Inverse folding.
């Protein structure tokens, strides 16, 4: 049996992906291959194989290239990763191509978009057989092993929250790791906070132990010493203080010549962690999401919005002193936003940018906009002044 896992190109949009093999494809591959060594498993990341699609000509190239890859692959089962909404158009093109080439083949879709709106794949004549919600490893493995009988129409399968030590990572086997400059992996999954817009809300934090985490990083780095960056893709990195301090201390002892990336919250990260990270090359991304207390409360980001904003400013100052590069994401046009709250947010950021050496970029994944700022050199300050909010 031959199984394919495919991530379609993003259509008509620049995407904030600083590179490195997509971790969800790597973990899905590792879990399936480890538990089914007799099955041939192949991964196709079309952003690497073909590239993004921004015009009609590129769409035609994408369709031709994907058809050739699918024909060559001859997959009995194909898993499509509709990871973000930006992957939806590509996912549907791949699904239709696969169904035309393999009328009897089994077609599975998973990812954040699939989790948020599984009904997008369930319509009369849909080429999709299964839509997996949430963590995909166990559900995909069960579908591949025939444990979830196929029905005449698309069915939704609830994923199983994995504890990370259950995924032995097949670093040696994975073709996209060779030559990769960045390595992305998870120390944990899940988040106990309740932000109302987030699919990871109220999920149990489940991680490797600090020792297991550092051992995994060393293993990856030993195999791929060309790597320049290690990205921790945890929705909320190192929520517990003892875990964080042990992990960062162990990591610092390894003295790896790479840069690191984490995503955290302003009310989780603290000065002690920043001190440890300051000696390593860490970039800290903070999902601040809003700077207007009313909007923060609507988002259920925090129950103490004023203190939350104050804490961001304290940490920002401390990270500047300790020279830790950091950035924030802000969501605009959240339901409940008014012209008044937008004006308040822009006034906050104008004050901030006028007193900081910082920049922002606008990212617009439908239906939200994300504003992110990062310390940088004077040329980008000029750029920010050239861009109108
Ligand atoms: C870390 C992160 C990133 C990382 C990349 C992580 C990665 N996996 O590649 C970076 C910083 C690069 C990033 C970039 C972007 N991100 Co982001 N990111 C996150 C974050 C914080 C955590 C994601 C994560 O690792 N989750 C844990 C793992 C276990 O879940 P997972 O990756 O989804 O993988 C599992 C399932 O999806 C499933 N699965 C996936 N594919 C398949 C396929 C099959 C066949 C099956 C069965 C299952 C399956 O199985 C996987 C393994 O269990 C989330 C959520 C959040 N709290 O904010 C946002 C989030 C996913 N990102 C989001 C967005 C919009 C983006 C960008 C499009 C932003 C932009 N405009 O550029 C880019 C897209 C990058 C790209 N090329 O795909 C949105 C998606 C919303 C949407 N509907 O589109 C989220 C939900 C944030 C939000 N609330 O808005 N992101
Ligand atoms: S803290 Fe981050 S990961 Fe957790 S629920 Fe909020 S947005 Fe999601």
């Amino acid at each position: 049996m031959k199984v394919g896992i495919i991530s379609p190109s993003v259509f008509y949009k620049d995407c904030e992906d600083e590179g490195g093999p997509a971790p969800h494809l790597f973990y899905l591959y590792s879990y399936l291959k480890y538990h089914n060594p007799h099955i041939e498993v192949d991964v196709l990341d079309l952003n690497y194989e073909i590239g993004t699609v921004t015009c009609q000509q590129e769409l035609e190239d994408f369709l031709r290239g994907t058809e050739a890859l699918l024909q060559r692959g001859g997959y009995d089962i194909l898993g499509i990763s509709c990871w973000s909404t930006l992957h939806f158009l590509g996912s549907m093109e791949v699904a239709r191509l696969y169904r035309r080439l393999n009328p009897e083949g089994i077609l599975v879709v998973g990812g954040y978009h699939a989790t948020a709106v599984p009904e997008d794949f369930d319509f009369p004549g849909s080429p999709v057989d299964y839509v997996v919600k949430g963590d995909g490893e166990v559900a995909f493995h069960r579908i591949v092993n025939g444990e979830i009988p196929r029905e005449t129409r698309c069915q939704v399968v609830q994923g199983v929250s994995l504890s990370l030590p259950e995924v032995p990572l097949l670093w040696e086997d994975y073709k996209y790791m060779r030559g990769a400059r960045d390595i992305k992996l998870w120390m944990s999954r899940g988040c106990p906070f309740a932000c109302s817009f987030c699919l990871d809300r109220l999920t149990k934090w489940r991680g490797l132990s600090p020792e297991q985490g550092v051992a995994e990083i060393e293993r990856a780095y030993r195999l791929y010493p060309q790597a320049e960056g290690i990205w921790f893709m945890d929705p909320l990195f190192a929520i517990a203080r003892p875990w964080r301090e042990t992990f960062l201390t162990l990591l610092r002892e390894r003295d790896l010549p790479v840069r690191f990336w984490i995503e955290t919250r302003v009310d989780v990260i603290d000065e002690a962690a920043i001190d440890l990270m300051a000696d390593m090359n860490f970039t800290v991304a903070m999902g601040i999401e809003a700077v207007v207390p009313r909007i923060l409360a609507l988002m259920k980001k925090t129950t103490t919005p004023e203190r939350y904003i104050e804490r961001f400013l304290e940490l920002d100052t401390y990270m500047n002193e300790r020279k830790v590069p950091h950035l924030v994401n802000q969501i605009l046009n959240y339901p409940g936003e008014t012209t008044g709250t937008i004006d308040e947010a822009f006034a906050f950021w104008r004050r901030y940018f006028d007193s900081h050496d910082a920049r922002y970029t606008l990212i617009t994944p439908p239906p939200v906009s994300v504003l992110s700022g990062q310390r940088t050199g004077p040329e980008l300050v000029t750029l920010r002044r050239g861009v109108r909010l």
Residues 287-389 form one domain. The radius of gyration is 22 Å. The CA atoms of residues 230 and 317 lie 25 Å apart.
